[in-house]
Amino acid sequence: MLVKNLSDCPEFVAGDGTLLRELLHPDKQDVELRYSLAHAIVPVGQVSIAHSLKTSEVYYILSGIGEMHIDDEVQRVKAGDAIYIPPNARQFIRNVGEEAIVFICIVDPAWRQEDETVYES
User: Fold this and answer.
1) Domain presence at residue 50
2) pLDDT tens across 15-24, in order?
3) CATH of the domain at 107
4) E strands along the chain, which residues?
5) DSSP-assigned letter for residue 71
6) pTM of the complete model
7) How many domains does the chain have?
8) Residue 47 neighbours by CB distance under 10 Å
9) First CA to last CA across the chain, in angstroms?
10) Which domain holds residue 97?
């Protein structure tokens, strides 16, 4: 049985500028998964860097309020919202609330650096 606790996962700054902790990734644990699972934070007043993935992604918002930008669409998001991000979509999330936005990221197939493009601001 594999159980990963968030506190045991090192925090790092991801390519898009979010504070990230990888919980499950098939290249890093002996698990038969197609997807990767990570925990992300965007602090108050911050915005992630615009980026795109060759793969699909889902954000599930745990806390906070933000503006989700996917290509030319913008929508306010909050705790309890699940957001589907299609492959190759330019995306970023802006924290517009008074607390950190905390969310889960599911990337399918699993995230790989070579599948991500980070855009200059």
Assistant:
1) yes
2) 999 999 999 9
3) 2.60.120.10
4) 12-13, 19-24, 36-42, 51-53, 56-63, 65-70, 73-78, 82-85, 91-95, 101-108, 116-118
5) T
6) 0.94
7) 1
8) 20
9) 43
10) 13-113
